[in-house]
Amino acid sequence: MGAWLALGLLIFAGLVLVLPRDAGTLSGLESSDIAILASGLALLVFLGFPLLGEYRGRLGQAAKDIISWSVLALVLVAGYSFRDEITPILSRVTGELSPPGTALSVEGLEAGQRAVRIRRMGDGQFVARTIVNGVSLRMIVDTGASTVVLTQNDAQRIGFSVTGLRYIVPVQTANGTSYAARVQLRDVNVGDIGLRRVEALIAKPGALHQSLLGMSFLSRLRSYEFSGDFLTLRS
Question: Which pLDDT value is given to residue 139?
Fold first, then answer.
């Protein structure tokens, strides 16, 4: 029964569409609007009749399900309508729930621009989860370091042979002056931001406990900004 009624509505919609354009309107509706309405009713009838059979004798449950689905539909429509206002809130919540150091993409940028946000660690430092020469490394963001500085372990992980390096570049560490070897990194990536051919140093064994993301990377960005518990990098 439902299938035949739906078919009849579809036939009616087709006939309305082939009527001459000067045939006038019905209750203020154009022929195209009437066809769309009839097609929607056909779909509703086609899907609704089997459901009525499922809920036979359970009108209370049917009413509850209709209300639940209606509320869900209204929530989805409201969420889509306010998507521009909700997106920044969701980004902030995601930032709070993500592990510190995770590079979160910033929305609403102009074409060709990229930006990521990094949340401060509990000890007050900003630690970035980077990809260097294809290898994942955790690096402390240090604006006081003139270059990217790698520990011996991290240098070996990304493919450098540390045995033949010349440690001739003086660097200041917490323990005083030390020396490092100058190298060049193929690429350094923090989230969506990536730079190629980045100057770096490899520290002598024991001179550095964690690699540093220094100014040879940061100075090549369009900008970097510390704001509260977040660091924003822009390229």
Answer: 93
